[in-house]
Amino acid sequence: MGLPGPGLWLKRFWVLLQVVVHVAVGKVCLILFPERVKQHILAMNQKNPHFSYDNWAPTFYSMQYFWFVLKVRWQRLEDRTEPGGLAPNCPVVQLSGQRCNIWDFMHGNRPLVLNFGSCT
């Protein structure tokens, strides 16, 4: 399994640039047009009655926001797979409650079959 290939590093760099631009533009808009940004954020969250702009506004486009968005976007890169490629190494919880990753179940060249289900 080893280190990620050069393709993943390039994708991570591209995502880093996208998040930097997103946060920079958002911060500038928040400074130059605070009322318009407030209207936009409130419009996006009309369906959530627990959303309070006063509680959340200071976190938008902050360094904490930047690192969170970057972490999530980088993690999503590794959660994708291509036909014939490796399965993503997602965290899973065994019935015993022990936490591990999918790749922990791979042994040699044996195929690994994942069966997902739901009982509702």
Automatic annotation (TrEMBL):
One of its GO terms (cellular component) is basolateral plasma membrane. The keyword Oxidoreductase applies. Keywords: Membrane, Oxidoreductase, Selenocysteine, Thyroid hormones biosynthesis, Transmembrane, Transmembrane helix. The keyword Oxidoreductase applies. The chain crosses the membrane at residues 12-33. It is a single-pass type III membrane protein. Belongs to the iodothyronine deiodinase family. This is Iodothyronine deiodinase. The lineage of its organism: Eukaryota, Metazoa, Chordata, Craniata, Vertebrata. The gene is IOD1.
